[in-house]
Write a structure and sequence with these properties.
Layout: H1 3-9, H2 20-29, E1 34-36, E2 39-41, E3 48-53, E4 58-64, H3 68-85, H4 90-106, H5 108-119, H6 123-151, E5 155-157, E6 160-164, H7 170-183, E7 187-191, H8 198-209, E8 217-219, H9 224-233, E9 239-243, H10 246-256, E10 262-266, E11 271-275, H11 281-293, E12 303-309, H12 310-326, H13 345-360, E13 364-366, E14 382-385, H14 392-395, E15 402-408, H15 411-418, E16 426-430, H16 434-440, E17 448-451, E18 470-471, H17 476-480, E19 484-486, H18 487-494, H19 517-520, E20 535-538, E21 544-547, E22 556-558, E23 561-563, E24 570-574, E25 580-585, H20 589-601, H21 610-626, H22 628-639, H23 643-664, E26 670-672, E27 678-686, E28 689-693, H24 699-712, E29 716-720, H25 727-730, H26 732-737, E30 746-748, H27 753-762, E31 768-771, H28 775-784, E32 791-794, H29 805-808, H30 811-816, E33 818-826
Parallel strand pairs: 6-7, 6-9, 7-8, 9-10, 11-12, 11-16, 12-15, 14-15, 16-17, 17-33, 28-29, 28-31, 29-30, 31-32
Antiparallel strand pairs: 1-2, 3-4, 5-19, 10-18, 13-14, 20-21, 22-23, 24-25, 26-27, 27-33
Helix pairs in contact: 3-9, 4-6, 5-6, 6-7, 11-12, 21-23, 22-23, 23-24, 27-28
Length: about 850
């Protein structure tokens, strides 16, 4: 073909990337061993697994199949290395990480080709997207290693981290895991996905090349059932960081429940791609190509649900079909190819199965007229129209090049459709009206929202999900907290229990039915201004008669009203001497459900102004301070602590309310400047409905310390107060009622802590669960929370000193009350 002919046909010429250097690299090393303690070792099993080139279906090489013996060796190496690496100055860690970034750039072409050979993704993507982002991640986190001491004072590394990654962005997912872990002083054992081990093995070579101390990074290839599960269950692993499917994430949540291991989960998605009728439709078409045909649609945040405003739907679909007709599929090493191979035959079959199901369910399928290569695992770009929102293809993650489209009429309908999913990873909004786009973005339940763009990533902007897309963030400062814990926690665990002024006692079953003594007599320290006391009255006939106290039986506090418990039962509350000092309602499943419903109905609280929330918190503090003496006496009565101690607790609670009133309009997001023309608005959003179970140690302060930050950040809460001493929380009803707090923002259900927390943790409309009680209770909460992957915050049975502002208030509480949403807003024409 001569130049004139090429000019006339405008056909692509071949632009092949040579695989020769990568194949030679493979040949020199095969079969690949395991990378443990800075050495290449043979697997204990002596077994090897094939790694297949998906574009040919033929084996590329063999890699070691590790088993639990290898996991033990790697964890031991990581533990030993942690003793030194965890104390290595940030500047030294930064130098190592800088060297890793440099070496990734030096080997960038080899890495790009290896990734394409092993995964099937086009070289254009590995060369221009994956590998540059990997290098950027290490540079960015080298910076955090350098700054850790000054920017995260009071935090320390968690220790040995087990990291498990998927096959869709093998090296990029490795970077997202290893870079923050190392920057914060942890050591790691990483398991690449079964299908795509090669770039992780090249990374191990880089680690050797730059002289990273042995054991800081260990890489184990092998099967999930052998390596992954052993890593997750290993007792000497302090944290599991996982990226993969929601089902496996759920099983990891269950497997680690109660173990005290930190856990971060980056899971699946079914992200909406919303097109308003004023959008630039040609840009939209290119956006769709990047949203769903990038990496063959095997992208967790792929824009797989196209939601189009009805009046432009037909025009957009026509343009899209024309563009699909021009997409080029084929050899991933051809630089003029848009779509490469699906990662494996199993994944290809799964895509085919779901597409057939879509057709069976009545949706209309369209594919371009050209045929896919017959060798290897290829699937054509596919578009479904006439899709009903409840069908399988509209709800499940297909993880392939399959787009389903639906229409909407109004922005409100678009938001409702977009949020009609159990996932919450990402979303794109397309409109030339920036006001509309920025109005819609905060309403979308997703960790990342792209405005007039899609699938943009940067190390500075955290990535992660809402809902069943998991919890935790990777990237940004927020991602660092996944790899650290407060230093006081370690000290506390070492010395077991602190809580200086706590008197502990157990409520014995034999106490039930004990005399209601103090209800008819003054509580300790009681004086005349209380209105639940017994007194003496002079009657007109001159007689003096002892008056019984007016009975005050607290009910539940639901939707701003005091309501009777559904059960019709009450439970006794005892003082330390075992005398009954009052009764509270025995809450049950129905009360919890009502409270959750009320908390949901109050979701408008999240959009109230931060100034307003601050004002209400100040007002609660003011109303509490008016009744300081009464609240202190109640604490004395319930706990037997000294009056002075009790006053200290009440004053600490008032101060804490002031703290969160102060934070309400100050714990704000940031604006990132990633390498693009535009900004990323990192907004701290409320999580939603938080179920919280209060500690017994400080009946009032425990309650205030948990509820105040949550509501300051816009959440609504269902609180189970201290089971032992619930009266301080129930005494707050009147304080809350008189402080302008909207109904349903705080709901209080008294009763059996573990029964109520189980119902809350099981509830699919509760978005996060905080539990401060027994170790066993923590485990139950973590287990149950796997149902809808709610975020949990538990104390594993270790009490904290709630009086101490370092342990009892501050950023940790605010972070647990928020999730970061990154809104990408490019600018320029
Ligand atoms: P997967 O869940 O099957 O496997 C992920 C990793 O976990 C693999 O290394 C696998 O070997 C390992 N694994 C599987 N079962 C395990 C077990 N019981 N115990 C321990 N380890 C186990 O996922 P996949 O098919 O490799 O990847 C696709 C999924 O990953 C999709 O759902 C996608 O959305 C998700 N993903 C999410 C993100 C994100 O950031 N949220 C990014 C990429 C991919």
């Amino acid at each position: 073909m001569n130049i004139t002919e090429i000019f006339e046909t405008m056909d692509y010429g071949p632009a092949p990337e040579s695989p020769t250097p990568a194949l030679a690299w493979i040949k020199e090393r095969q079969p690949f061993g395991l990378f443990i303690n800075g050495q290449w070792v043979k697997p204990a099993s002596g077994q090897y697994l094939d790694s297949v080139n998906p574009s040919t279906g033929k084996p590329l090489t063999q890699v070691a199949a590790a088993n639990s013996e290898d996991v033990n060796a790697a964890v031991t190496a990581a533990r030993t290395a942690f003793e030194t690496w965890g104390k290595t100055p940030g500047h030294v860690r930064a130098r190592y990480m800088y060297a890793i970034a440099r070496h990734i750039q030096k080997h960038s072409r080899l890495l790009a080709v290896l990734e394409s050979l092993d995964n099937g993704k086009p070289i254009r993507e590995t060369r221009d997207i994956d590998i540059p982002l990997v290098a950027r991640h290490f540079y960015y986190h080298a910076g955090w290693a350098q700054l850790m001491a000054s920017e995260l004072p009071g935090y320390e590394p968690v220790g040995v981290v087990g990291q498990i990654i998927p096959w869709n962005f093998p090296l990029l997912m490795l970077a997202w895991k290893i870079a923050p872990a190392l920057a914060m002083g942890n050591t790691v054992v990483l398991k690449p996905a079964r299908y795509t081990p090669l770039t992780a093995l090249k990374f191990a070579e880089i680690v050797q090349e730059i002289g990273l101390p042995p054991g800081v990074v260990n890489i184990l290839t092998g099967e999930a059932s052998q390596v992954g599960e052993a890593l997750v269950r290993h007792p000497d692993v302090n944290k599991i960081a996982f990226t993969g499917s929601t089902d496996v994430g759920r099983s990891l949540r269950r497997a680690t429940a109660g173990s005290g291991k930190k856990l971060s989960l980056e899971l699946g998605g079914k992200s909406p791609f919303i097109v308003f009728d004023d959008a630039d439709l040609d840009s939209v078409v290119e956006g769709v190509v990047d949203a769903i045909w990038f990496n063959q649609g095997q992208v967790c945040c792929a824009g797989s649900r196209l939601l189009v405003q009805e009046d432009v739907a037909e025009r957009l679909i026509a343009k899209l079909r024309a563009r699909m007709e021009k997409l080029r599929i084929g050899d991933p090493l051809d630089k003029a190819v848009d779509i490469g191979a699906i990662v494996s035959s199993a994944q290809l079959k799964e895509i085919q199965r779901l597409v057939e199901q879509g057709v069976d369910e009545g949706a209309e399928m369209w594919q371009p007229s050209w045929a896919c290569p017959t060798e290897g695992y290829f699937f054509p770009p596919t578009l479904f129209t006439n899709v009903s929102p409840a069908t399988t293809i509209a709800q499940v993650e297909i993880f392939g090049p399959v787009l389903v489209s639906m229409t909407f009429r109004t922005p409100a309908e678009a938001v409702a459709l977009a949020n009609n999913t159990r996932y919450g990873l990402a979303a794109s909004v397309w409109s030339e009206n920036i006001n509309l786009a920025l109005d819609v973005a905060p309403k979308l339940k997703a960790g990342t929202v792209w405005v007039n763009c899609t699938n943009l990533f940067d190390a500075s902007s955290g990535f992660g999900g809402y809902r069943e897309s998991g919890f935790g963030r990777e990237g940004g400062k927020e991602g660092l907290y996944e790899y650290v814990r407060p230093a006081w926690e370690t000290a506390l665990r070492a010395t077991a229990r602190v809580a200086p002024t706590i008197h502990e006692w157990d409520v014995q079953p034999s106490m039930v039915g004990a005399r209601l003594a103090p209800a008819l007599g003054p509580a300790p320290g009681k004086d005349e201004d209380t209105h639940d006391h017994a007194g003496v009255s002079d009657f007109s006939n001159g007689s003096r008669i002892a008056l019984p106290a007016i009975d005050r039986t607290p009910k539940m506090f639901i939707n701003g009203k005091q309501v009777r418990p559904d059960s019709g039962y009450s439970r006794d509350v005892y003082d330390p001497a075992g005398r009954v000092i009052g009764q509270v309602g025995e809450g049950n499943r129905k009360d919890v459900r009502n409270a959750v419903e009320a908390a949901h109905a109050a979701s408008g609280w999240a959009s109230s102004t931060t100034h307003n929330r601050a004002q209400i918190l100040y007002y609660i503090a003011e109303n509490l301070s008016v009744r300081e003496g009464e609240f202190a006496r109640r604490i004395v009565q319930q706990t037997g602590r000294s009056q002075a101690d009790a006053i200290t607790e009440v004053q600490a609670a008032i101060s804490r309310l002031f703290s969160y009133a102060a934070w309400a309009d100050k714990f704000e997001g940031v604006v990132h400047r990633p390498p693009l023309r535009g900004v990323v608005l990192a907004m701290k959003e409320a999580i939603g409905v938080i179920g919280m179970v209060c500690p017994d140690e400080y009946p009032l302060l425990g309650f205030v310390s948990l509820a105040a930050p949550a509501i300051a950040m816009g959440n609504t809460v269902v609180v189970v107060p201290s089971q032992q001493s619930p009266l301080s929380a129930t005494d707050c009803y009147q304080v809350l009622e008189t402080s302008d707090l909207p109904d349903g923002v705080v709901n209080i259900v008294t009763g059996d802590r573990d029964m109520l927390s189980q119902v809350l943790a099981d509830h699919d409309d509760v978005e996060a669960m905080w539990y401060f009680g027994s170790a066993e209770g923590c485990k139950r909460v973590e287990l149950a929370s796997a149902s809808n992957m709610k975020r949990t915050w538990v104390n594993y049975g270790h009490p904290r000193n709630w009086l101490d502002p370092i342990q009892g208030e501050g950023e940790e509480f605010l972070r647990e009350s928020t999730q970061v949403k990154n809104i990408w807003v490019p600018y320029g024409d």
